[in-house]
Amino acid sequence: MIERGDILEAKNRHKDAGLHYIIFYSGKDTRHFLGGMLTTSSEYEENIPMHKDHFETKDLDQHNYKIQYNNSHLVPAKLIKLESWRPFKIVGKLTKQGVEFVENHIDDLAEMLWEEYLVLRVVND
E strands of the chain, at which residues? Predict the structure, then answer.
């Protein structure tokens, strides 16, 4: 079962789908869920730097997670993710501090699609 703070990799990694790794935030309905987006890009100043202590390094079987801290940034958006990008594979997990970090930055934001976020970012630049 997917939980808040799980880092997901979508099978559909197309640029307009699940290219970036997704932080599961909450369920929405049968076709969508809400998530944050991880990036290693500091090109955009609105991206929020994360810290090494935000990421678990090993799963319950003591295997290294694929996704760990790597100059990681949170995109400041609560994004609507599509179930059609399935299947999703858990490839990382945030620590309790990491989950709180994400909650503090996206909890009060409006839900939106990635395309809507891009339009808002261009308008605000």
Answer: 6-10, 22-27, 32-39, 48-49, 73-82, 88-93, 111-112
